[in-house]
């Protein structure tokens, strides 16, 4: 990307019951964007809040053409909220951040600089993280280490929402479940360059965190899915098939040995535990191979239906009249 090229910026903010944080957040984002030499739009996605977040956003939006509000029909979760924001973002660069003022909008410049250097994704690293040690920082450190080992993506902090993406990357990724923290890993599938920058992190002033320590377990299960999708999603039979064949071959050999004993040596085999093992291994082998084939069929069905939305919108407030996604 040429550094002189005029770029536009979309800022996507997932919001779930953050009424007290929104006015200050809006001020901070606006101040930071005014210091940048590019056009911008702030997209707040109200993820089914039941406090005053939506009315607060509506009054902010009324006063400022640069604000768009997408209101989801219910609480779909942070990944879905981000996904809705991405679908309606039009900027060349898309920045995401939390609504609770824990991320600092002053860091936008840092992220954009890296994108201008040529990176496709720039991820924030909350090096001095202001969260609880036992329930947050330790599980998160373990998860980050594991994700990094398994996906081979060298990041210290996958969970930091403050990230910047080139539009063409984000538009080509389909998110579901709680996979937003794995965007860099999923994107690695299409070939991307990823940079990491240290960003500021602040304690939560108002409202409560929406997650508990159980998120750790979900993240680990998500990691399994991501690894499977990344490595075998186009050829599931290659993973199921190996186990199936191994099991079937061992079972078959044991079966042959027993048949030899029964037919040639005329030894009775009815009471032999080995017989049971042979049958079990052969059945497991057949099951694994058919499971692999079924998975192959499902993968094809999946690839044809990836356009499905994971959120439903109640209304969109935007001063620019058109409301369609790109
Ligand atoms: N969030 C959301 N939908 C949810 C849960 C969270 O949009 O179902 C938003 C929330 O408002 C915040 C961001 O996602 O802007 C991160 O949530 P939180 O601060 O609770 O997570 P933590 O910082 O504790 O990891
Ligand atoms: Mg937070």
How does the SSE layout of this entry go?
Blueprint: E1 8-15, H1 22-34, E2 39-46, H2 53-63, E3 67-72, H3 78-88, E4 93-96, H4 108-117, E5 121-125, H5 133-151, E6 163-166, H6 167-170, H7 183-187, E7 194-198, H8 215-232, H9 236-263, H10 273-304, E8 313-317
Parallel strand pairs: 1-2, 1-4, 2-3, 5-7
Antiparallel strand pairs: 3-8, 4-6, 5-6
Helix pairs in contact: 5-8, 9-10
Bound molecules: uridine-5'-diphosphate and magnesium ion (MG).
Word description of this protein:
The protein is α/β, with parallel strands linked by helices and 326 residues long. It has 2 domains: 8-232, Spore Coat Polysaccharide Biosynthesis Protein SpsA, Chain A (Alpha-Beta Complex), CATH 3.90.550; 237-304. The chain has helices at 22-34, 53-63, 78-88, 108-117, 133-151, 167-170, 183-187, 215-232, 236-263, 273-304, and strands at 8-15, 39-46, 67-72, 93-96, 121-125, 163-166, 194-198, 313-317. The chain has an 8-stranded mixed sheet with strand order 7-5-6-4-1-2-3-8, with helices on both faces. The radius of gyration is 25 Å and the shape is elongated. The two termini are 22 Å apart. The protein binds uridine-5'-diphosphate (UDP) and magnesium ion.
């Amino acid at each position: 990307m040429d550094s002189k090229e005029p770029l536009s910026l979309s800022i996507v903010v997932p919001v779930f019951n953050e009424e007290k944080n929104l006015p200050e957040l809006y001020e901070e984002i606006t101040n930071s964007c005014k210091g940048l030499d590019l056009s911008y739009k702030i997209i707040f996605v109200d993820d089914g809040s039941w406090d005053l977040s939506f009315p607060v956003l509506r009054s902010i939006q009324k006063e400022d053409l640069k604000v768009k509000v997408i209101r989801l029909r219910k609480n779909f979760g942070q990944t879905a909220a981000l996904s809705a924001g991405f679908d309606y973002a039009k900027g060349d660069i898309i920045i995401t951040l939390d609504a609770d003022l824990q991320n600092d909008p002053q860091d936008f410049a840092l992220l954009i600089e890296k994108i201008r250097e040529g990176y496709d994704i720039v991820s924030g690293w909350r090096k001095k993280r202001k969260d609880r040690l036992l329930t947050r920082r330790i599980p998160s450190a373990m998860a980050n280490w594991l994700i990094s080992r398994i996906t081979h993506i060298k990041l210290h902090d996958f969970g930091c929402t403050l990230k910047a993406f080139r539009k063409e990357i984000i538009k080509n990724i389909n998110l579901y479940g709680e996979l937003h923290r794995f965007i860099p890993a999923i994107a690695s599938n299409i070939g991307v360059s990823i940079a990491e920058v240290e960003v500021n992190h602040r304690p939560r002033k108002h409202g409560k965190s929406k997650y508990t320590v159980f998120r750790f377990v979900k993240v680990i299960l998500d990691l399994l899915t991501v690894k499977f999708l990344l490595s075998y999603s186009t050829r599931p039979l290659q993973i199921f098939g190996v186990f199936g064949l191994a099991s079937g071959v061992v079972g078959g050999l044991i079966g042959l040995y027993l048949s030899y004993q029964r037919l040639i040596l005329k030894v009775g085999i009815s009471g032999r535990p080995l017989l049971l093992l042979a049958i079990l291994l052969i059945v497991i082998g057949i099951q694994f191979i058919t499971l692999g084939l079924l998975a192959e069929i499902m993968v094809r069905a999946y690839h044809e239906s990836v356009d499905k939305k994971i959120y439903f919108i109640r209304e969109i407030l935007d001063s620019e009249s058109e409301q369609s996604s790109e």
